[in-house]
Specification:
mainly alpha; binds zinc ion; single chain
């Protein structure tokens, strides 16, 4: 099914080279962006993710083929070939599918349980890009790309998805500041993606883009990086360990715990509601954290005015 080269595997030497360059640049600047245990965890999670991906690839190909033949035979959808103009269209729509996947991965706990791994480092460097899930297939990440198989050739979709993944590697760095305005306006950049990895209330659930930041601008999820607010990377509740298995499976364990303990009428909610949702409001979702922060922010100037008025 996939008769185009596996470009992600071909890109691995490039990943390693860029990481070495980043380490040298950070050392030269006197900042310590890398921590050995954290990097080792990221690299091993990346390796495990590749193995998990290879194990589930057969099933995914079978599903893709089923969708393709369903599109052609049952729906009569046009089967686009490899004409030159199909490529950019496929790349663009694949990137939109990524945006929808990524937004869902932050808003639905079942999907989040697969994606959370990528956010579990408190560092932000190129090795963080390789911190990938082991349970993406189980978390149903593939469903978002399936509609593409109705019209585009499978090999083209796999190629575009690979390009998308490769693009996202280089944006995981603090070594690159802001890029030219036109580039920041259209493309996902290190600056935009740093925001995505931030746990600051302002930055939670923002900038889901893969390659083009236009989706966030269009759908109201864009937030620009500010110079006056240092980004705290990681999770709202950090793992506090470099244990590989805990990083890979902790949210699944959390779901299992909640399913066991929750009253029957709430069990399903622990699978489909947003991360941090609880039936007794004992936890906070990112929307609640944001609302609390907004309230504090608007209360502060008022308090200052009241105090100034009192001192008169
Ligand atoms: Zn994310
Ligand atoms: Zn990322």
């Amino acid at each position: 099914m996939n008769d185009l080269p596996d470009i992600v595997t071909l890109a691995i030497p490039g990943f390693i080279l860029l990481m070495l360059i980043e380490i040298a640049v950070l050392k030269w600047r006197g900042s310590d962006g890398y921590e050995t245990a954290d990097t080792a965890t990221s690299l091993l999670l990346g390796l495990g993710s590749t193995i998990a991906g290879a194990l589930s690839a057969g099933l995914f190909y079978a599903m893709a083929a089923a969708v393709q033949s369903f599109g052609g035979e049952s729906l009569g959808s046009p089967q686009l070939g490899f004409a030159w103009w199909v490529w950019p269209l496929c790349f663009l729509l694949d990137d939109l599918a990524y945006y929808i996947f990524h937004r869902s991965a932050h808003r639905v706990r079942w999907f989040w349980a697969g994606h959370v791994v990528h956010h579990s480092s408190q560092h932000y460097n190129l090795s963080t890009a390789l911190r990938q899930t082991w349970t993406g297939f189980f978390a149903l990440s593939f469903i978002f790309r399936l509609p593409l198989f109705l019209v585009f050739p499978p090999a083209m979709i796999f190629f575009c998805a690979g390009l998308n993944l490769i693009y996202q590697f280089w944006i995981h760095t603090e070594a690159v500041g802001r890029l030219p305005r036109w580039f920041e306006a259209v493309m996902n950049t290190p600056s935009h993606h740093r925001v995505h990895h931030g746990t600051n209330a302002r930055y939670l659930d923002r900038n889901y883009a893969g390659v083009f930041i236009i989706w966030d601008r269009l759908f109201g999820t864009f937030e620009r990086e500010r110079d006056d607010e240092r980004i705290h990377y990681g999770l709202v509740h950090n793992l506090g360990s470099f244990n590989l298995l805990w990083a890979a499976f902790h949210e699944w364990a959390g779901i299992a715990r909640d399913l066991w303990a929750a009253p029957w009428r709430h069990k399903l909610h622990y699978l489909i509601r947003e991360p941090g949702w609880s039936h007794d409001d004992s936890r906070e979702t990112s929307a609640m954290i944001r609302a609390r922060w907004e309230a504090q922010r608007t209360a502060k100037p008022k308090k200052a005015i009241d105090q100034a008025a009192d001192s008169l």
